[in-house]
Fold:
Amino acid sequence: MARTKSLPDVEIYAHLLQVLTDSGEKSASFGIVSARCGLAPATLAQRFGSVDGMVSAGLAWEWARLADTVIAAEGDALNSSKGAQAWLRLLPSPPPQLLAISLRYEAGRQGAETWRGLVKQAIATRRGGGSKGRESAALIFAAWQGRQMWEAAGGKSFRLADMMKAMP
Structure:
């Protein structure tokens, strides 16, 4: 009979994601994560099989969590151009480091793609739908993510609201 888990996976993922964001993928190990979460490295190895397995599971969980925030925020903003901007403020944006690491793992890539699709579809709906809505959604998404990335690097280059006002 399997033992009950003394610490749920989501708590381990939170520690793992903090390690990945703060120190990068190469610093993720059973030893580092176990020191943060209080479980023995052997317990983590038994639970996840390998460090890659742990990272992959953590990334899949995080992207699923972010996708859930998109779905939950769907009803919280108006279906207008102002609604798209207000709606984006409700969403957490993944740290750039996490996106970069996700591209090296299938579960991370798939999760990121699903999240991106959900965000772009919601923006397109708020921009009127159709081909013009999808086109402007792609531009708005790219600008929003670019701004998030550069803010993390210490700069603010433009206001998203100004860009959206200039769009048809």
